Amino acid sequence: MKQRTTRGGLRLSEIGLGTAQFGNLYRETTDAEAAGAVEEAWARGIRYFDTAPHYGLGLSERRLGEALRKHPRDEYVLSTKVGRLLEPNPGGEHHRDDDIFEVNAATRRRWDFSADGVRRSIDDSLERLGLDRIDIVYLHDPDDHGQQAIDEAIPALVKLRDEGVIGAVGAGMNQSALPTEFVRRTDIDLIMLAGRYTLLDQGAAADLLPAALERGVGIVLAGVYNSGLLATEHPQPGATFDYTEAPASLIERANAIAAVTERHGVTLPQAAIAFVLRHPAVVSVPIGARTARQVASNVERYDAPVPEDLWQDLTDEGLLPPDETTPQN
């Protein structure tokens, strides 16, 4: 698998493995499924793995760390996130987590983007992962904590990066406005952008992507399927967009795009991956998977050849803006 290099010298495989599902996202994942997904990813050339304390109240970090410990540490890139500290929740072991993960609530999350919170979160993550270092640390959803992120969290991460404790500083969000501010005002290395630059939504092309190119900041493009709508060849009613039921107009648009891709022998999910990798700011596309079979399917979609004239046809039919048609890599 091809790799792309960040300005700090980290080499990320073009496809990464997102591990929210290792934290029992929506339903239970077994230890064997998680381990099998990592092994399949490794066999397929994936060398970038992303997790977070938020995912299953630390379960994803524990499972990913255990699966990666059998592989040479210098051969892969690992990222996790800060901003949600995990604390004991007495009595919670008899209740389900009140978020979207099927785990018990013996632990609870507390927002904390302070410098001390950042350092504590990293220490806790290292313990759960059982690994000796973290390559990339992202601020996780700092949407309502932007000023504290700029004043405290990012400077704390930059200091740790400059001391060699971590490899790169990032922020992960589902919007492009605040990440653009981070890019312009701070010494950040990477933005993990979810859902705002896809076949259906190119909002970040107006602000974040140009700023990232100007400042040499890499974009890790998550949510390439917009949480589900672009994950199937022919989206049906009830498909999700940004984790809620997609409106009929978006389902219709997705199927219109699919009709064009099929004329070129390309499926909608294949086109979804190929489209975002055309942009020169994008350094990796992590895709979530629960099982080895799902990992294999995602890599096969990535490997599928996509003819260049597909993008022009999508533009000619009004399904992509003209600025997104020109080859960009």
Structural write-up:
This is D-threo-aldose 1-dehydrogenase. It comes from Okibacterium fritillariae. This protein has 329 residues and is of the alpha/beta class. It has one domain: Alpha-Beta Barrel (TIM Barrel). Helix content is 36%, strand content 20%. It contains 10 helices and 14 strands. The strands form 4 sheets. It has an 8-stranded parallel barrel with strand order 3-4-5-8-9-10-11-14, surrounded by 6 helices. Strand 3 (15-18), helix 1 and strand 4 (48-50) form a beta-alpha-beta unit. Helix 3 (115-129) crosses helix 4 (146-162). The longest helix is centred in the middle third of the chain and has 17 residues, at 146-162. The radius of gyration is 19 Å and the shape is globular.
Q: What attributes does this structure have?
A:
329 residues, alpha/beta, TIM Barrel, eight-stranded parallel barrel, two-stranded antiparallel ribbon, 10 helices, 14 strands
